[in-house]
Design goal:
Layout (H helix, E strand, L loop, with lengths): L8 H18 L5 H24 L3 H35 L20 H22 L8
Helix pairs in contact: 1-2, 2-3, 3-4
Length: 143
């Protein structure tokens, strides 16, 4: 017998916070602060997905593992981006650079690709759950 989807207010609240944070950061004016916020949110989403993969089983675990796969690539890009932004900030604080705003490369001033990966991660998770449903043996067929 297939289990029903368990809906809770806690899940709704967590999903609302994640979507609101993603839309807020994606629609904000590009700056080094927004870039670091996107990098931090990527690490937070990745951590939540890893915890979900560890704490669940079955199709839910397949969903979280599929989500982790995409978020790992996003985290790799975010960590490189954060290193570049932080190196510019350290140079600014040490007095080497006169100002940060105009000197920062445009490709790190908003991390424009991260929100795309944030959206792709749950889609990949759903695909992984579908593959689990398609290929995993039913519970009563195993002995």
């Amino acid at each position: 017998m297939a289990g029903r989807f368990q809906f809770s207010i806690r899940f709704l609240l967590a999903a609302t916070v994640a979507v609101a944070a993603a839309f807020g950061v994606a629609r904000a004016e590009p700056s080094w602060q927004i870039s670091l916020a996107m990098d931090a949110l990527t690490a937070l989403f990745l951590t939540a997905a890893i915890i979900g993969a560890i704490q669940t089983s079955g199709e839910a675990r397949a969903f979280w593992i599929g989500t982790v796969v995409v978020l790992l690539s996003a985290f790799y890009g975010a960590s490189e981006n954060a290193c570049v932004v932080l190196s510019y900030l350290v140079a600014y604080w040490d007095g080497v650079l006169p100002g940060v705003g105009g000197l920062m490369p445009s490709d790190v001033r908003g991390g424009g690709f991260l929100w795309v990966l944030w959206c792709a991660a749950p889609v990949n998770g759903l695909f992984a759950a579908f593959l689990h449903w398609l290929f995993a043996p039913p519970k009563d067929a195993t002995s």
